[in-house]
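--- STAGE predict ---
source: upstream dedup step, 1 unique chain passed
mode: sequence only
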Amino acid sequence: MKNNQVILVVEDEKSLREALSNKLEREGFTVLEAKDGEEGLEIAFKYHPDLILLDLLMPKMSGTEMAKKLKEDEWGKNAKIIILTNLNETEKVKRELEDSVYEYIIKNDIRIDQVVEKVKRILG
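--- STAGE serialize ---
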């Protein structure tokens, strides 16, 4: 049941990254994983995923910084991103990232199947 859509999960928390990846793979997506923004940026530029699930607070390079660097790229400025965060500071995040982000998910408030539903909705 492959649908050929590629999702990049950029999350430093290994258990959450693996749980998201496993669920998305079971739903037929091809999943790439990165443990920090630096690795995430490298993978994003190499594979041009259809959607990026992006944690904000990570070592080496934050999700905010990664999203800004993506916007500087011809492909990256149109990348679809869902921000994963424990912060309830969506206004601050929106200002930092302007309007490049499709959705925000507060990790404490959501179940993995809800993340999958958002992914499916965004990718049509």
